[in-house]
Design a protein that fits this description.
This protein is mainly alpha-helical. Helix content is about 45%, strand content about 10%. β2 and β3 form a beta hairpin. The radius of gyration is 39 Å and the shape is elongated.
Length: about 260
């Protein structure tokens, strides 16, 4: 943060971000009128968070930014028009201004997201070049303008946030599990164990009788052995396990 520059409000950073964006996206309409600037601040896409400012609120914000030399007022026909002066006041290159404007419009982002979202303002060669400018802004001798946030749980990359509104509020990540959830999980496991039937449950008396007959080597009444069943169908009744498929019985083939 620049020592001589106070912390800016959300609407002030939104006004600056819109002015930088419109300078590149709609150069024919830049500098912006108050109506165009208000519409840009209230746009629903490509902005986080979404604001709903009135013309009077935007005008008061512009007046304060003019006092900080961040906005320049000029006359264009019958209405006043406004342009930003961010690059000169902060003494940073245009590439850094594009990154700051993207952060002011969309909030914290990773270096890869910044490269994609700032493409209309400046086309960076790769993510490494974005990280290079971010590191320069973070190590700026006159005061850091961005800071790298701690990695969020489950995230692969860290996010960056601007410091024009002061240091961001750091919220500690929620613990992976609490005592209530641990107790609930233990009770669920206990309930599942109680609902699980004991070993051997669900078998009828017929199953128990077949088990006893298998131990004695006898077969239950009415059960036809597999070899006899296959022989009745004209199939060879015995063959070693693991051999090839049994062939059909052919009297002519056997006689030859």
């Amino acid at each position: 943060m620049t020592p001589n520059l106070p912390a800016l409000s959300l609407l002030e950073t939104r006004v600056l971000g819109v002015l930088v964006e419109k300078q590149h996206t709609v150069p024919d309409a830049y500098p912006l009128t108050l109506n165009a600037l208000t519409a840009g601040c209230n746009q629903k896409s490509s902005c986080d968070p979404i604001v709903n400012a009135t013309d009077a609120e935007v005008q008061a914000t512009v007046d304060r930014l003019i006092g900080l030399a961040l906005v320049v007022e000029s006359s264009g026909g019958r209405v006043m028009r406004y342009s930003h002066n961010v690059q000169r006041v902060l003494a940073v290159p245009s590439e850094a201004v594009a990154l700051l404007a993207t952060l002011m419009l969309r909030g914290p982002q990773t270096a890869g997201e910044l490269r994609i979202h700032s493409e209309r303002l400046h086309r960076f060669a790769d993510t490494s070049s974005v990280e290079g400018y971010l590191n320069e802004l973070a190590a700026r001798p006159a005061g850091a303008l961005v800071v790298e946030l701690a990695r969020q749980p489950g995230a692969r990359e860290t996010r960056w946030v601007h410091l024009l509104s002061g240091a961001p509020a750091v919220t500690p990540p929620a613990p992976a599990g609490t005592a209530d959830t641990d107790v609930l999980a233990a009770s669920e496991i206990a309930a599942l164990r109680q609902r699980r039937p004991p070993a051997g449950a669900g078998r009828g008396p017929e199953d128990g009788r077949h088990k006893a007959l298998r131990r004695t080597g006898r077969r239950a009444p009415g059960v036809i052995p597999a070899p006899q069943l296959l022989a009745g169908a004209g199939v060879v009744s015995s063959w070693p396990l693991g051999t090839c498929r049994p062939r059909r019985f052919s009297p002519s083939r056997d006689r030859s």
